[in-house]
Amino acid sequence: MGKRTTIIPAVLIILLLAVVAVWFFVVRETGTTVRVLQTAPATRGSVSVQLKSTGIIKPQVGAIVKTGTRATGVIERMLVRVGDKVKKGVLIAKIDDREQRTEYQSKEAALRQAQADLTNVNKTYPIKLEQAQATLDGSLAKRRFTYLTWQRNTELVATGVMEQAALDEAYQNYVVAATQAKADKEALRLVEENYIKDLINAVEAVVAAQADLENASIQISYTEIYAPITGLVSQVAIQEGETVVTGLEVANLITILDPTRLEMLIYVDETDVGTVTSGMPVNFTVDAYPNVIFRGMVSKIYPEAVIQDNIVYYQALVPLSPQTALQLRPEMTTQCSIITKEIDGVLVIPNEAIKWVNDKKHVYIVDADGKAKPVSPKFGVMGENNTEILSGINEGDRVATRIIIPTITSDNSK
Fold it and tell me: Which SUPFAM superfamilies match (predicted)?
């Protein structure tokens, strides 16, 4: 029993010594050897600095038109449904127009009467003027005759050939003729004035009747609803058989969207808005097409801020081409990358090659034997995927992108 007890501690001591030896030769060796797992060459390329943000797809101004009517009546025909494609100028709905057509016929009759009255004025007054002028001409002729008679009789009375009574009678006839000529002249003037007045009234009546008829025609046109733009029907607010009652406002019945006229608004944080300017390229994706990268360009930045969740944003406007717009939908959320800076033809290395060692950036250059040597190059612009190298690394050098660094645990390796 004592012998067995002595053997067990000896075995434990041997095992402990073996564990210590393994740690010393294996773990210690690992901690002093740089192991390169993956490399990449330093090459000439481009570097782009991108600003990440979110955006939303919106219709452009005028891309959504709410089509309605000012007519009151029953929907006789509804020719479209939600999702239908329509072309500008195509009839999309019809309202019962019997009441409007009755009113049109009444106004049409009133126009005919006004035109007849105008024709009558132009027909009768020239005759009246001719008659009045003829009467005046007769009166003037009589006045002249009586005047000449009065003058002759005056001479005859002066010579004693004619008695004074004949002269008095001649004078009386002249006065009567002159008075009649004056009255006939006034009558002609009144006929002329009445002609002008009645002609103006008749013309105005025709114009008013034509306006009333045109208005009645417009009222009929309200009963026929045509597509104002080419696009897709996005909403239908009423169906056949329902009654439209209009008041002071136009009743909106059908909404049409032009799917080719969309734009994107990017929400740029107030801390980043200073780096964004018009003309910057934009790449973006949507959840509906996660593997498709859409492209655009910043057109303008709105001056007024938008506050969401107590964060201040400024909206950058990105117009979309018709081809891009047709693949998207209003109110879609986008994940955007605004390329704020881009340089070409510079020496670059992958961002994975940059390692932090003792709070400093290092790059490990790998030689032909696979040995890695740390260097501290001069870095330039750091982009989304790679970084510009200004000096310290030559074109064609291979750099380690995945490496196990001495005294650095695997958690810091890539």
Answer: HlyD-like secretion proteins
**Run of H or E including 189:** helix 164-221
Q: Is 255 left (phi over 0), alpha (psi -120 to 50) or beta?
A: beta
Which of 83-92, 151-160, 192-201, 326-335 is the least confident region?
A: 151-160
**What DSSP string describes 59-93?**
EPTTSEEEEEES--EEEEEE---TT-EE-TT-EEE
Residue 303 has a pLDDT of: 94
What band does 30 get if pLDDT is binned at 50, 70 and 90? Answer: very low
Going 217 to 220 to 226 to 228, the CA torsion angle's sign is positive
Query: Distance between CA atoms of 36 and 376, rounded to whole angstroms?
Result: 18
Q: Quick one: average pLDDT of 208-218?
A: 95
Angle at the Cα of 238 from the Cα atoms of 236 and 243, rounded to 5 degrees: 160
Look at phi and psi of residue 277 and say left if phi exceeds 0, alpha if psi is from -120 to 50, else beta.
beta
Looking at residue 412, its pLDDT comes to 41
Q: Report the percent of the chain where pLDDT is more than 90.
A: 64
Of 370, 374, 369, whose CA–CA distance to 353 is shortest?
374
Pairing type for strands 262-269 and 85-86 reads: unpaired
Share of the chain above pLDDT 70, in %: 89
- Structural contact between residues 405 and 69, judged by C-beta atoms closer than 8 angstroms: no
Write the Ramachandran bin of 310: left for phi over 0, alpha for psi from -120 to 50, otherwise beta. left
- Indicate the pairing of strand 372-375 with strand 398-404: unpaired
**Alpha-carbon span 89 to 75, nearest angstrom:** 19
Contact of 42 with 347, CB cutoff 8 Å = yes
Q: Is the dihedral of CA 288, 293, 294, 300 positive or negative?
A: positive
Compute the Cα dihedral for 235, 237, 238, 243 and give only its sign.
Answer: negative
State how far the Cα of 108 lies from the Cα of 369, in Å rounded to an integer: 103
